[in-house]
Amino acid sequence: MIRQRIGPLLLVVLYASGVVASWEEKRSRRDGFDKVAVARIARATLERALALPDDGAGADVDGVPAAAAEAPDDGAGIGRGEGGDSGSAAAVEEEDVNISYDGSDLVAWINDNGGLVHKNARIGLDPAGRYRGVFVKTAEEGGTEEGIEEGEIIVRVPWDLIIKPKNYHVDRWWNCEAIHELYRQFILGDESKYAPYVNYLKNQPRGRIPDEWTDAGKRLLHTILDWRENDDVGLQPLSEKSYEETWIGECMGEDTPLARAAFYQFTSRDEDTLMVPFFDMSNHSNDPEKLNTAYPQRPKRPGQPFVLRSMRDIRPGEQVYISYNRCHRCWFDESYEDCKLYSNYETNDVFQSFGFVEEFPQTWKFKMNVGDEEHPSWDLLKFCLTRDDSSSSGLVVRFGDNYTPDPESEVPTMGNVVYMGKQLMRLVELEATVKNDGKVMEAMPKYEWEMAWTYHQALMTSISAALLASDIVNPAGSDDDSEEKDYSEDNSEDWDEQDIDYDSGDELDDEDERDEL
């Protein structure tokens, strides 16, 4: 954790003596923070979230916006979709011209130019027709009974078929030249050497990344995030890349519809600087029962191919999954050296960059002011959230990560608990007063409305789990601190078991705030 006002050694001494906990307890009482009420609401929030049906789908799904809006939620809030163009209602509601796309032209292009796509792999819709991805062919689709066996190459893409920046040999990380190159290929269209891939990308449905939502959709999302301009408090992701600030400002790009399309297609892909055909059509999952591909073999220098292999047998009809943050230290026991070239998105970032809420396991990171407005003290709280059917609750929280020298130093303090508790109460009040407001709902496309509340549910679930696992009535400094907790563990005898009515709640203090939505 970041503690700018108290040295680490002094902090340990103060916690051991109870001085810090006592001071924070006094501040929580002064701020009117009711721990028992917050714990009660947190428990009810998780009971509701975990009772929601799990549709068994993946997370990032390359499919139709309408299907995304109508698909059920799994309790964490699984969304579907990737980048696009403008944020207009018409753009989101438009027909997906790729609805029947089977990728045969792309597969032929890769195979004819020195690459390899496994004979049993196909691009298309899932059997229910809900979303697009990469699947293993069934016998009816021309596949063989062995499917894709462990260790086999699913796709090998030659260097010359990868869209990449000209300066890749000196900068393999995210850079403006990579977006400029994709934009140049978009302009070329059918004349591009990557035409089969470029034309597919140009025809992707629009309006699914939060940055390209309508103004009304953004206002609702900013309210949910407690977002304030030029201020990074609240619940917003810490690595946001907006079109205006990044493409227009940092990259000095021109503002055209095609430039927007290129920007959002680039930022909604897994690779930092590479656009890899076929691989990019695979969907994301961190569920260990679904994830079936090994770490991709990325080019370490120009001229090398990009290779994706299976890490287990993938049977006919199964979907091929990749992970945008498989090297995330919270649940994969990988060293920094092994993972430093791979993505480490938190769940907050996945939503902001890719437009969906990933299924469990999830990782969350919140920046919070544990001081006050006159004397701010900034802190980072990191934790993992995992479904575990063997536990009584089915949900486990782990604070910190595998790189934390002292895991107990990551257990939330009273300052963290107060901050999260107030955010939870604010989110509950917002749901009670805004979610049934037809005027606000009608101001934006259905997709934006439903995805905003999906993320709202995910925030409430994660914050509630962290609060209850933190020993909310007796946080850091107690004898019962633990690195990993089952959320349903009774950490206090003071918890009230009464039911919480989510259909009632106090009105927002400022009516003007509702009108702004």
UniProtKB/TrEMBL annotation:
This is SET domain-containing protein. Residues 61-89, 474-517 are annotated as: Disordered. Gene3D superfamilies: set domain protein methyltransferase, domain 1. Residues 61-70 have a biased composition (Low complexity). The keyword Nucleotide-binding does not apply. The keyword Glycosyltransferase does not apply. Residues 76-86 have a biased composition (Gly residues). Keywords: Signal. Residues 1-21 form the signal peptide. Residues 119-325 form the SET domain. Residues 478-517 have a biased composition (Acidic residues).
